[in-house]
């Protein structure tokens, strides 16, 4: 009975989370008690939340200012722990009533031994390999005593079974009396312990893998920040050098330029910092949960401890469901920062010195001069340039010319259906569909002829509806991908549809002096009018609208970003010098990876 009482007291002094004797025990509002350190770790898992969830019953306790030390302490439990620590342990092997003080504890026998019994114990051949712990190390807390599970109802019986439905250990007598009904899954305690430890090992392996994955992501973000910082430093150095050669009147302009560099790059760094913060918080969350669940030496043996560890294991499993990081976002943000450079004015007003500009990745000559008539991003993220002389040229985001398809087909417009079939508009305003293998399909469309409708352009929306705009007829026809007659016509209200682009549930129409956002019934929702230069519009990957303004006479292009209400957001490219083409025709698109493609009849320019 005395040994059973000691077992009960020992269990009562164990924290359900760490399975060790309580250290600075704190009481939650649900009356469950935990070590202060364990509660600190659990609170850390909840981010900035001041509510702490009990691992045993899941009741919530508010922690003022996230300071666990302000929770009530279990003074009675602390006193009992001190009494147990100071209580002398007597030999459990001596037969006489006047037992001697124990000097060691045998882990294998489960007994405390005095000096004499220890000597006798060590002389038996079968006991030589037993693990014996000095009492001074047990009292000091350097080692933990392995406790043997004894049934609380039947103290002489070992708890050799485990009921997976009741989540508790039991002796054989308890199994017969309480766990034989339908729904009780009883297995050997050793089997459960082995399965439990395997589950913990699996969680540890997955946690290590996920932690490593996100650490690589954080390292990658740091690298991108370094690239952006280096560009900012280089730009700042260039600006300082230019201004050191000038007079004091340039100071104001100098500050303006440096501020612009700082503003552009700090915005990118802020984006990267937010990404890093999110990833680091996830790593901290994962570390805390993994440490609480994995870093221990014992299997939980009673209901509260089992409930706590079931909860914590489930929390860790939920945390491991986090998708691996997507490197595209920091890479895309980094490109916005690393594209900044300082360009000094030469041969112009020296008081202006220069401006902050965006670097061009590539300036590529098209295979056939003066041939471009259409451009669209392909379903796999490349850029397709259609040529009225014949063929579609395919370019990667880094400017590599990869292939030419439909070589003998003259192109005025090109689009793609959701199944990746090509939609081709030729100079006679005929629409033709081609398979992925470039086989012509027998699908006919009743479009306006070139004489009836005039110059035509084409776009395809997300519902596979094909829109054809006519410059002479000043209207738009809408076709099903099945072909035949137009399903309906959209009047253009007197303006000339020079280019047409699908934009969500709307259409972007560019004319010589305006950009209009219309719904699919032709109602103008927003418009930019009285523009100084001919505009060319495209939908960005961020669901905003990009507009390129070309000064054809001098050969420069500027690209700006607008909201879906055509409100200006930012300037992306400012007065970039291009090789002036013979024909006044341009196109603007954006790669899926973020690069902006601007095409003249002769050349393809790719901007970060």
UniProtKB/TrEMBL annotation:
Keyword presence, Phosphoprotein: yes
GO terms under cellular component: nucleoplasm
Domain B box-type residues, every copy: 86-135, 146-189
InterPro entries per the UniProt record, alphabetical: 6-blade_b-propeller_TolB-like (IPR011042), TRIM45/56/19-like (IPR047153), Znf-RING_euk (IPR027370), Znf_B-box (IPR000315), Znf_RING (IPR001841), Znf_RING/FYVE/PHD (IPR013083), Znf_RING_CS (IPR017907)
Keywords (A to Z) from UniProt: Coiled coil, Metal-binding, Phosphoprotein, Zinc, Zinc-finger
SUPFAM superfamilies, alphabetized: B-box zinc-binding domain, Calcium-dependent phosphotriesterase, RING/U-box
GO molecular function: ubiquitin protein ligase activity; zinc ion binding
Coiled-coil regions, chain positions: 240-278
The RING-type domain, residue ranges: 15-58
Pfam families associated with the record: zf-RING_UBOX
Domain of life assignment: Eukaryota
Name under which the protein is recorded: Uncharacterized protein
SMART domains linked to this entry: RING
Originating organism: Strongylocentrotus purpuratus
């Amino acid at each position: 009975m005395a040994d059973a009482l000691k077992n009960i007291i020992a269990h009562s002094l164990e924290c359900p989370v760490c399975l060790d004797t309580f250290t600075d025990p704190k009481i939650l509002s649900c009356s469950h008690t935990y070590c202060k350190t364990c509660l600190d770790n659990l609170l850390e898992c909840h981010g900035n939340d001041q509510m702490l969830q009990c691992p045993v019953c899941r009741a919530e306790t508010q922690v003022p200012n996230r300071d666990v030390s302000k929770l009530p302490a279990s003074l009675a439990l602390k006193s009992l722990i001190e009494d147990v620590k100071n209580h002398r342990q007597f030999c459990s092997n001596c037969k006489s009533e006047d037992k001697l003080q124990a000097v060691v504890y045998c882990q294998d026998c489960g007994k405390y031994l005095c000096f004499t019994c220890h000597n006798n114990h060590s002389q038996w051949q079968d006991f030589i390999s037993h693990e014996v712990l000095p009492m001074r190390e047990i009292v000091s807390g350097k080692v933990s005593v392995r406790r043997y599970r004894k049934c609380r109802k039947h103290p002489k019986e070992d708890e050799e079974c485990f009921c997976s439905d009741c989540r508790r250990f039991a002796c054989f007598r308890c199994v017969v009396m309480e766990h034989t009904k339908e729904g009780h899954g009883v297995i050997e305690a050793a089997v459960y312990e082995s399965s439990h430890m395997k589950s913990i090992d699996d969680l540890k392996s997955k946690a290590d893998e996920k932690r490593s994955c996100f650490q690589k992501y954080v390292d990658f973000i740091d690298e991108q920040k370094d690239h952006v910082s280096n560009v900012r430093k280089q730009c700042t150095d260039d600006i300082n050098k230019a201004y050191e050669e000038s007079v004091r009147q340039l100071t104001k302009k100098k500050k303006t330029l440096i501020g612009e560099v700082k503003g552009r790059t700090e915005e990118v760094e802020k984006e990267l910092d937010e990404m890093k913060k999110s990833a680091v918080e996830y790593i901290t969350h994962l570390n805390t949960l993994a440490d609480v669940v994995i870093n221990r030496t014992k299997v939980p043996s009673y209901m509260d401890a089992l409930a706590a560890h079931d909860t914590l294991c489930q929390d860790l499993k939920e945390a491991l469901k986090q998708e691996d990081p997507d490197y595209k976002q920091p890479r895309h943000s980094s490109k916005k920062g690393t594209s900044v450079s300082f360009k000094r004015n030469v041969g112009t007003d020296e008081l202006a010195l220069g401006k902050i500009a965006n670097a061009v990745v590539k300036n590529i000559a098209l295979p056939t001069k003066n041939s471009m008539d259409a451009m669209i991003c392909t379903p796999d993220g490349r850029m397709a340039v259609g040529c009225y002389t014949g063929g579609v040229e395919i370019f990667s985001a880094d400017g590599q010319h990869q292939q030419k398809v439909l070589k003998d087909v003259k192109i005025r417009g090109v689009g793609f259906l959701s199944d990746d079939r090509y939609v081709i508009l030729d100079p006679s305003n005929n629409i033709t569909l081609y398979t992925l293998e470039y086989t012509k399909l027998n699908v006919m469309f009743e479009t306006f002829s070139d004489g009836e409708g005039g110059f035509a352009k084409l776009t395809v929306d997300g519902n596979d509806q094909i829109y054809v705009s006519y410059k002479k007829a000043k209207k738009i026809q809408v076709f099903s991908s099945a072909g035949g007659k137009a399903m309906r016509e959209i009047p253009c209200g007197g303006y000339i549809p020079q280019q047409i682009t699908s934009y969500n549930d709307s259409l972007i129409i560019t004319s010589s002096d305006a950009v209009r956002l219309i719904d699919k019934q032709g109602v103008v929702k927003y418009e930019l009018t009285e523009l100084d230069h001919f505009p060319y519009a495209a939908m960005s990957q961020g669901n905003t609208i990009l507009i390129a303004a070309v000064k054809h006479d001098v050969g420069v292009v500027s690209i700006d970003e607008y909201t879906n209400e055509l409100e200006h957001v930012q300037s992306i490219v400012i007065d970039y010098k291009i090789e002036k083409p013979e024909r006044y025709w341009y196109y603007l698109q954006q790669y899926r990876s973020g690069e902006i493609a601007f095409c003249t009849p002769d050349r393809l320019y790719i901007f970060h």
